[in-house]
Amino acid sequence: MTPIFEFQGIYTPVVTPYHDDGSTNWDALADVIEFLISRGVHGLISGGSTGENYAQTVAERLEIARFTQDRIKGRLPLVIGTGAMLTADSIALATGAKEMRADAILLASPPYAVPTDRENALNALAIDKAADLPVMLYNYPHRTGTMMGEEFLDRVGRSRNFCGIKESSGDINRVHMLARDYPHIALGCGMDDQALEFFAWGAPFWVCGGSNFLPDEHVALYEACVLEGDFAKGRRIMSAMMPLMRVLEQGGKFIQTIKHGVTMNGIAAGAMRAPLKGLNKDDKRELEQVVRVLKTTIATIRAEG
User: Fold this and answer.
1) What is the mean predicted confidence (pLDDT) over 283-289?
2) Residue 290 within a domain
3) Which of 111, 153, 205, 304 is most deeply buried (CB count within 10 A of its CB)?
């Protein structure tokens, strides 16, 4: 079955910069978008968890998505996140995505409810019906409490819109199963420290929060593994990136670390909305050291060809 949309490359789930009062910093968001486009990422995601969607109203999320689309001006695909606790909210987001002619939607399981595979599939199909756009599924059971199992995948497969999956379970056996049994749903890396393994199993795309501030290095791994098929080079790049993966995942400070990384690049990402707090001085110092070494190492690898 020919997919209606092909997810390829590095997809950045864009952060939402804020002013001190918690309002959206539109100028900084525009700067992030322009920076990412200029550095060669392949698509942007608005309204993902990295963008703090859980701390925003549906109206805010749609406003940010429209702003992002207006700034992209068709230069890159735009995927709009529809993840929400209430099905009605997800449908409203999906309808908004359709109205603004987004390229695709990101569709996660509703958190906390813990639906069965059948219930989760019916929920997903209702969101799909509202959008009628290509769908990138988002399987993240550690956040949602629900695994998108084989019954779920079989049921949603009745709609050809479901053409990609961001797999964030961390279970490498899921990667094997998806690559082998569901080849019509493009496999995407959603677990950063397994990116090399995903690419080895044929994943054509990677959704990576760290590309908000290190797009060149994430693109470098994708190009080495997917475009060049040079996994020896890929292993060297991945090895250089592993300290970053540890910093991003340690202590539950993923978004805080990414936003500080964006700020390190000279774009004021601002603080997080409650309940999250910013990094302390030690955390910032550690990230800055890791980034310095990573950039130098990967630049050397790329220069060697």
Assistant:
1) 97
2) no
3) 205
